[in-house]
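2024-03-11 09:14:02 DEBUG pipeline.ingest accepted 1 chain
2024-03-11 09:14:02 DEBUG pipeline.ingest length=865
2024-03-11 09:14:03 DEBUG pipeline.predict start
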Amino acid sequence: MSQPCRLPRGGRIDRSRTLPFAFNGRRYEGHPGDTLSSALLANGVHLVARSFKYHRPRGIMAAGAEEPNAIVQVGRGGRSTPNLKATEVALYEGLEARSVNVFPSVGLDFGAAVGAFSRFMPAGFYYKTFFGTQRLWEHVFEPCIRRAGGWGRAPAEPDPDTYDRRYHHCDVLVVGAGRAGLAAANTAAAAGARTTLAGARPTGDRPVGSLPQSDNFLHLPNTTVFGYYDNNCLAALQRLTEPGATPPAATPRERLWHFRARHVILATGAHERPLVFANNDRPGIMLAGAVAAYLDRWAVLPGRRVCLFTNNDSIYRLVPKLLDAGAEIAAVIDSRASPAGPLVEAARERGVGVRTGHAVVDTRGGKRLSRVAVAELSPTGKPGGRVGWLPCDLLAVSGGWSPVVHLHSQSRGKLVYDETLACFRPGEARAAQASVGACNGTFGLRDALAEAVAAGAAAAGACGFVATHMAVELASAEDIPAPAPSPLWLVPPRPGHSYSKHFVDLQNDTSAADIRVAVQEGFESVEHMKRYTLAGFGTDQGKTSNINALAILAETLQEPIPRVGTTTFRPPYTPVTFAAMGGRDRGELFDPARLTPMHDRHVELGAVFEDVGQWKRPWYYPRAGEDMQAAVERECHAVRGRVGAIDASTLGKIDIQGPDAAEFLNRVYTNNWLKLPVGKVRYGIMCREDGMVFDDGTAARLAEHRYLMTTTTGNAAAVLDHLEEYLQTEWPELRVRLTSVTEQWATVGVAGPLSGKVLAKLAPETGFSPAAFPFLAWRDVAIGGIAARVFRISFTGELQYEINVPWHYGASLWEAVMEAGEEFGIAPYGTETMHVLRAEKGFIIVGQETDGTQTPYDLGLEWAV
């Protein structure tokens, strides 16, 4: 550990209070307003992690979501959260964090021995080294490799916290709460549009301007929009409590927002990108914009003797900040031959040495940067001449800026390559949206604000509101010129050091050499290169590495960058916890139990239940001293010899209506349905397109253009979805409507040789003899004054009647059946008895006798084809 880095004044922290926290078992103190990364730097902690593959020492590089190195695990027990970025964890009292992927500690990691063999471990070496050793790979090599290279650990204990979901509709959704986003939101809200502003700034962080004070405005701090889907549907994660902390009473930890917006304005900013040179990953090498952020927001000076390395003007804004903070600037190393402008001249006027046409070609240091090697660049871009070493403990780098185009791309918007800014920026949008400010490649502040105001007014106008112009804010805005870098995608190694690592993706240890190996191996497509080298994978998703990787691939292929293209930006933009996606749908609410109206009657009879889909169905009804086998045998004998009753309310029921209903059934079932008369029922087999059995059931013709289809309990929703898909995509010309009525009808099946006598007592006006009520017929009857529909069908092979009444009469029907059957020795029976009876008769149960690989012929049902 080096000396503390907190400045005596400045920043946006609350110095009146201190917050104790722990990192890797050691105790430190910070202030409200700190992040974990700023607090660690303030305490002089620079070594915070080890790299994914080679276990090289890594430090904090950025200040936001683009951080590739500082991956930590926060919290204990069920609240332990892995793979968080220290730059995104707000400090709180009692925070406990630790490095991941280290053993036994971040300072002494045995895994670092792998680095000695890094020359022999390029991208794809797994496939070539272990090819043909399947058993050794599965049982020896793969487990070792997974333990050596990885992330944090998921907690073994249940998560004790709650998570929420919200659905929100608005006229204008502004993503990003920087100056451009705030200007756009103010303009839209002032016009009267329902406006929502979602920004990743913490709840207590001071915004860069005033927020609208109106009922039509919603501000969501600490909220990251991570997905942009069809029809302006966007998803966002709001952090209400920091990871590992105990939430206040009745407060969820996180909330998942689903937005539906008429118009979207993206003001997501830009990420500064690093420069690629030998050993560019040591602790103490940081992005220049991040150094400025730590100085301005947290009053933290990450180093005392500083070198700056750049290919654009933006890094010169850091010079006065460093000097005012008391840092010594060893030199500004500028790869451009003749940089000019007021920022460059201002640095020289303050006595800072500027080495033009030079580059950092190597670094030295163990757990902290100690010096950098500087060499002059030849006209071909290679280091030439003498190499000089400059002692320093901080190297701030800037390779230009990359607009955050992730959400624009997710909405299927096009990207265009800007040669002047050396970056991809949004092109044509497919959705009702606009990109403004830095995320649109508009880096000048005044231009960005003007663009944001115009976009806010246009969005409000598209929603029917008239916007006012914010001329005062634009006039007072400081004009900051756009950085125009001179591209330097890769600093070649100095002579004799060709095996030095030039890291492109620091999170995945992907080097420039890995990209070249991928091309040599034939992986020339940008998507293939990504998967072969892992560039752009992980929680970083290529935020700082993407454009550098694409440019190095283009140079290797000798193709222009636009022709090489970009990888696909997919949601989520930043990681989303599974708990947030699940919300409150977990535990008992994860799979809610569905109960039939007779459930309490089954409980009174001592039923043991089983889960069939989401339904609680009686499995068997044990009497005193009976085990399952004895109870099932007794129930089987009752049905075969006398009469039994089963609750069949859970069977899927679909009401099918329309002039083409018969033709529709003829297409979805394997047998003929066109001539089924009204008042009759038919059994049918439903197959998938590959001819395998999907479901079976019956359908009754209720009227000329109306049928009632039954399905298996577990397949009710799947069958309805299957039928709807065919109606909407394959046969839209058919005039048919489908309605699920599963929970509109309660059903009791009465089976056995005496079942007709039980029905005769229930409905004495109806004849139940085989002649009066034949097999596969149905009748409308009245049972105890309740309108009912009775089907003469059998699930067990016995004489059986299926009685259907409106759902809320189910319990009354069950009681009436049991009372009428008491003199005949009626016995309730469950699903296990039903399985036995069906198996004895050779009746199939889809999902038990089938697994998706049986045709009707395999099941002896060729008669139904």
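2024-03-11 09:14:41 DEBUG pipeline.report The two ends are 79 Å apart (CA to CA).
2024-03-11 09:14:41 DEBUG pipeline.predict end
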